[in-house]
Amino acid sequence: MKTGIIGAGKVGLSLGKYFVLHGLDVTGYYDVDREAAKEAAEFTGTVSYNELDRLARESDTLFLTVPDGLITTVWNQIKDMSLHGKFICHCSGALSAGEAFPGIDERGAFGYSIHPLFAVSDKYNSYKELSHAYFTIEGNELHLDEVAGWFRGCGNQVRFIQASDKVKYHLAAAVCSNHVVAVIAQSLKLMEECGFDEDSALAALRPLMAGNMDHIVRDGVTKSLTGPVERADAGTVRKHLSVLNENDRQLYKLLSAILVSVGKKKNPGRDYSAIEEIVLH
Ligand SMILES: NC(=O)c1ccc[n+]([C@@H]2O[C@H](COP(=O)([O-])OP(=O)(O)OC[C@H]3O[C@@H](n4cnc5c(N)ncnc54)[C@H](OP(=O)(O)O)[C@@H]3O)[C@@H](O)[C@H]2O)c1
Question: 10 CB under 6 A from ligand 1?
Fold first, then answer.
């Protein structure tokens, strides 16, 4: 398999370097920014291409690692090239292969969406952490196992997903990653109101946050839940609500309603009716 990469950004460089280090054959890079393609080629010991059609000709597999909104634009640029038998892949979490590559079957090519469940934040360093990433793959049934084999061969865990589940799957990833940032930002705002600056607040909260994450991963959400909602401590919940503005009160109530359902699983005999009365109204 000779892999060409279109889009010399964070994922393009990380994946290319990762493939090369695992002995896979990477032809090289094309990017609208020629300098970026050159840098990527230097970084991976491959070739930079000024013409998209030459990269397509010299590769069996193409990864379109451009921003989500441009994947179909690039597909439209390459779809009339000779793609018969080639694998066309993108890395978007929310887009299916069929959505991204309309008409791919008529071209005799095979489309895949291959999503690393990982925050790829650095062009030149994230590849070092990619061995921890879980890859979620969706696309043409005919070669699914072969595509999964590329990543299994690098030591990664792989899971297949239905095209119709992609948006929900991507949302799940966003909730546990990005939405956690929103909740932590709110916690920091409250700490700052108590006289902490951001650095001291983060240092103070770190054992709580990191310990919580470790417990969740090790023991699951139900066992890990602690706090006033889990204890059905209506008095403390009322006090919390009394210091929040209206918007934050709504958020606290919505999140607490989810915590009540987790608490009921953890403590089937505990009476949560007083808490429910507060958070559901
Ligand atoms: N970063 C992550 O954590 C992550 C994780 C999982 C999946 N993904 C997915 O990976 C894909 C790439 O994301 P990324 O974070 O690597 O984005 P990125 O760092 O912005 O890289 C995209 C690259 O594509 C280039 N590009 C834009 N239009 C192009 C075109 N028409 N032809 C060729 N190259 C073009 C950009 O050049 P310019 O900068 O000059 O525009 C840039 O170098 C997306 O589908 C994203 O959803 C990302």
Answer: yes
CA–CA separation, 8 vs 66, rounded Å?
8
Q: What is the pLDDT of residue 72?
A: 98
Set out the domains of the chain in order of their start, with CATH numbers.
2-161 (3.40.50.720), 169-279 (1.10.1040)
* pLDDT computed for residue 43 by the predictor: 98
Q: Using a 6 Å cutoff on CB, does residue 138 contact ligand 1?
A: no
Q: Output the residue whose Cα is nearest ligand 1's atom 21.
A: 9
How many angstroms is it from 213 CA to the middle of ligand 1?
Answer: 29
Residue 66 CA, ligand 1 centroid: distance in Å: 3
What predicted TM-score, i.e. pTM, was given to this entire model? 0.91
Q: What's the average model confidence in pLDDT over 101-119?
A: 97
